[in-house]
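Entry 14. Ran structure prediction on the chain below.
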Amino acid sequence: MKTFLSATQTLFTSMLLILGLSVTLFAGEAEEFPFIGLNLSYNTITFNDINQSIPSDDKTSFGLHLGKQTQEWRTVFAVSGNSDYQSVALEVDKILIDQLFGRPEIRPYLGATVGYLHYEDISLEGDNGYYFGGNFGFLLYATDKVDVDLSYHYYQVSGLEPLDVMRGFGLSIHYFY
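Output, structure tokens:
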């Protein structure tokens, strides 16, 4: 079992590196805007239970974001968690229509996320797993240096049976330096 877990972690780390490098290629020669931020998320965690004896669980988590953004793409490295779980993830977002609402201060995006999850619960078969999924949201620019990110995410979880899905809403504040 430890060999499988080690192989899974190696595969996951490789996927993160490849994803990070490919985003760098997407950006090309575009001007980059690095940022750091804080995140508050509300997650509903559902379990794949045939008898449905395990109810879904609602969790609030706090996190730290570090990323870079261009006019079209955004990459975010996120560390988040609470007393029950900790997560490390890489999120890649495509900013869809820069001036959808006629104002450059509101920018919708669609993205993909891959992450590692450590969850401590005696009903789970393991403590460590990974997740992948999608997210969408709106970037709202408060000032030239600060944005607010309102988002929804849906992640499929593997390696932590019977934990199946994490979905919820996020609020982030980013500072561009």
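The longest strand covers residues 33-47. Will compare against last week's run tomorrow.
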